[in-house]
Amino acid sequence: MTSFNGNGHRGDNGNNGSNGVNGKSAARQAALRVIPLGGLHEIGKNTCVFEYGDDIMLVDAGLAFPSDGMHGVNVVMPDTSYLKENQKRIRGMIVTHGHEDHIGGISHHLKNFNIPVIYGPRLALAMLTGKMEEAGVMDRTVLQTVAPRDVVKVGQHFSVEFIRNTHSMADSYSLAITTPVGTIIFTGDFKFDHTPVDGEHFDLARLAHHGEQGVLCLFSDSTNAEVPGFCPPERSVFPCLDRHIAQAEGRVIITTFASSIHRVAMILELALKNGRKVSLLGRSMLNVIAKARELGYMRAPDDLFVPIKQIRDLPDRETLLPGGAEPHLPR
Ligand SMILES: [Zn+2]
Q1: Between the CA of residue 289 and those of 12, 270, 300, 314, what are the distances in Å?
Q2: Which residue in 116, 82, 120 sits closest to 102, CA to CA?
C-alpha cells in the first residue's frame, strides 16, 4: 500500500483541510491510500483501490489465468474481502480498457458488493455488459461511457480525466486522477504506438499538460515496461502475417486473444485480401468480434464469415480460423 498525506507537497490541491468531509481533525488524518489488490509484478487481475477520507474508488477489476499446477481452476481473482467490508464507502469504479485482466472480475465482484457507477470506454463497457447480463448483475451498478478528455468526479475527493492512449486493445485510456494531495498519472496498459491501427493516437499533449501542472506520482506498470528500448508498432506484424497466410497451402488457424481488437482486425483484413472465408473459434472470439463490428471498431463484410459447420464445404486453402481462448466465470 502507498500513502500520501500531502505534507510538504507543493501542489495547488495541498492537503490543508479544505476538502475534508469531517472538519479539520479528520482532514488532518486523511491521507491518500493506494492499495493494489492485484496486477503489480504479475500479469492479470489488475485491481487498484484509491482511498481518501471516506471515499473509495476502484480502478479496473480483472482476473488472471490459472498457472501450471492450479488444476481445476478456471480463473484467479484477487482477495476483495477489504472491499466487501468497506462496501458502503465505494463511490465508483474507473475502467481503463476492455482486456480480461482489467474487466474480467467485475461481474463476479458485483455479486458480492454494489458499485454505484462504473465509468469507462465504450468498447470495454459493451463487453462488460455481456458479462454482467450473463451473471445477472445488471442492477448492481450504472455504466457510464466516457470520451477522450472527459473528466468525472468520484466521491468528494477524486476527479478523473480520461486520456486516450495506445495499446493492443482499441479504445484504451490512461488516467489523470486528481486527489486532495495532488495528481496521479495512472498509465494503465499502454505502448507508445505512433502508427496505431485505428488511427487513434496517444494524447501525449494532455500528458505533457499534467506534467507541467505538477504530478504527485506516476503509476505505470504495463507488461514488459521494464524492458529497455522501444516495442514495434502493432502494424508491424501485418507483413509477416500476410506472408504466412498468402503462402499457406491449406487451412490457416490463428490463435490470439479475442480482445486484442487490432490484431483480430488485421487478421480479418488479411483473410479478405487473400480470398479466405473466416470461421470463428470460441465464444470469446464470437462475442468480441460481434461487439467490435457493431460499434465500428472493426470493419468486415458479412459475407466474409461462414459458420464453423460449413467450413468443410470449402477448399482448405480458402479458409481461415481465428481462435481465442479466454476464461469465463462459472455461472
Ligand atoms: Zn491490456
Answers
A1: 45, 15, 10, 22
A2: 120
Residues bordering ligand 1, an ion, CB closer than 5 Å:
99, 189
What structural domains and CATH numbers belong to the chain? 2-219 (3.60.15.10), 234-323 (3.40.50.10710)
Q: Are 50 and 56 in contact (CB under 8 A)?
A: yes
**Cα distances (Å, whole numbers) of residue 214 to 67, 81, 157, 161, 258:** 40, 35, 18, 15, 38
Cell representation of residue 97: 480498457
Reported as a single tens digit per residue, the pLDDT across 175-189 is: 999 999 999 999 999
Q: How far is the CA of 167 from the centre of ligand 1 (A)?
A: 7
**In which order are the strands placed within the sheet that holds 32-38?**
2-4, 32-38, 47-52, 55-61, 90-94, 118-120, 143-145
- Say what the pTM is: 0.85
- How many angstroms separate the CA atoms of 325 and 121, rounded? 23
Interatomic CA distance for residues 158 and 49, integer angstroms: 12
259 alpha carbon to ligand 1 midpoint, in Å? 9
